[in-house]
Amino acid sequence: MSSDCCSAASQGPHIGLVGLPGWGGTGVVAADLAYGLARDHMQVSLFALESPTRFRAPDPHLTLCGVDLGDHPAANGLGLYPLALAGKILQRSRDQPIDVLHLHYAVPHVAAAVLVKQALGQDSPKVILTFHGTDATDLAADPRYQPLLRSGVLAMDFCTGPSRALCEIAQNHLQLPKEAALTVVANGIDTDRFCPPPQRNRQVLRSLFPHADDNSPILLHVSNLRPVKRPQDLAAIAAAVQARIPCRLLVVGDGPGRANLEQSLENSPLQGRVAFLGNRADCVDLLQHADLLLLPSASEGFGLAALEALACGLPVVASRTCGLPEVVQDGVTGRLHPVGDVAMAAAYIVDLLVNSAEHARMSALARRDAVQRFDHQQVVARWQGIYRSLMAN
Fold first, then answer.
1. Helix axis angle, 231-242 relative to 258-266, nearest 10°?
2. Span 1-13, pLDDT tens digits
3. CATH superfamily to which 202-374 belongs
4. pTM of the model
C-alpha cells in the first residue's frame, strides 16, 4: 500500500484510527468503524501498515494512510514501526489537524501515540486506546513490557475494551488506579450484511467436500489458528461428534497451528470430511449455510467470529472464557463449556444437531440478540458520542 494519503472530504471532526493489518479481529473492527464514521460524514484517516482485510472501495470521507517503514536494516522485524507510525500521524496532522486519535491494540501503538503527544504538545489530538485481546491478557502481564505500557496507558485520554472481562484483566495486569478504569464499548456487527439466509441449505457448501457426498451437518471454525485458539481441541471435538453422528468440519483461517491440525484430522474419523479454506475476507455465505460455529479458544477478548455467527442465526458452541460469555448467552444463543472440556463440547453439539426444534429456537434468539445488542449503527453512534465528549473537554 502506498505511504501517501488519499484525499478525503474536509468536513466535520477529523478522527484518526490506527489498526493492525492481517486477518485478526483488530483490523476488522478498525476498518468497519472507519466506514461507519465516514457514512455519517465524519472525516476519518485510517493508519495501517497494509490495507486492512475489510478495506473496501474508497469513501469521500475516508483517507487510507499507509505507514512506510522504508528499507533501512533497522526496519527488519518492525522495529521502526512506532517511529514510522508517529511520523505518518504527524504528517497527516500538518495537512489537517486530527481531533481524536483512536488506537486499536495497545502494542506498539501506545508508544507511537506518546511520541505524537510529545511532538504536538497542546495541539495534540485526544487519544483513545482500545484493548482487544492478547495486548491485555499477555503483553500487559509481561514484565518486559508492563512498566512502559502502564505509563503509556496512563498518558492516554480514554481507554476502552470490548468486554468487561478484558477491561478487568488489563486493569489488574497494569495495576491501574480506579480513576483510570477502562470503559466497556462492545464491538459491533453490520446486521444487514451478516444475516440469516432465506433458507439455510447445506447443499450450497457441498462442493467444498468432494469426498463426503452426504448431507451431514457442517461444523464451522473461523480463527487464525494460533495456540490460544486451541486447534487440537477443535480436532478432538469434531472427531468426538463424528463418532456419534456423521458431520463435516469447515475450517476458515490460517496460522501456526494449521499443519498440526491437518495432520490430526487426517488420522481421525473425519478423514475426507474436512475442508480448509485458508483466509477469507468475508465468510457470510459459510456462516449462513453451516449448522454450528465452534470456538474452543483458551481466551477471547470479545469473540468477533462468534458475533458474526450469531448475527447469521448460527448457534455457537464455545469456551467459557474472558469475553465470550458476554457475547454468547449460554443456553440461549449457544452453549459454553470449560476450556479444554472436549467431551462437554461434543455433547452440546450432538444435542443441538439431533434436536432440530432446539436448534431453530437458538438460531432465532441468536439473530435477535445480535441485532438488539451489537448492531453496528448503535456502536458507531456510541463512539461518536465519546469522540465529541473528548473534543468538548
1. 20
2. 444 554 444 457 9
3. Glycogen Phosphorylase B; (3.40.50.2000)
4. 0.91
